[in-house]
Design goal:
The structure is a single chain. With 123 residues, the chain is an alpha+beta fold. The chain has one domain: Nuclear Transport Factor 2, Chain: A. The protein has a 5-stranded mixed β-sheet with strand order 1-5-4-3-2, covered by helices on one side. A hairpin with a 2-residue loop joins strand 4 and strand 5.
Length: 123
Amino acid sequence: MSNSKIISDYMRTVFVQRDLAKVETFLGPTKTEHNPRMPNGHDGVRGFITNAPKDLVYEQGLIAETGDYVMVHGRYSGWEGKTMIAVDIFRLEHGKVVEHWDVMQEEVPAEKSVNGNAMFPVT
């Protein structure tokens, strides 16, 4: 299975299904977290799933893979009352998530952007 497929399944398990038992199967023995609001390790993922707002909706967009790194462009609706666009970056070892970074910003509709372009194309 490709690393892109593993991460796509992982994101669905965490953000759509919110399945604590299943998400553990995607994680390596340790997980280094680079988001300053998340702790290292499995507890950060468990805490997120347990405490995520009920109305949070995740949509996966583009995904790219290079070696052990996978980047996913996604839309998070209902994130602290906003719609956020993010790029999540994962490093895998032996098919398991061992490291995570992300960059997030609030979505601006195309009609309100200076360039008229959407931030989240689904193509």
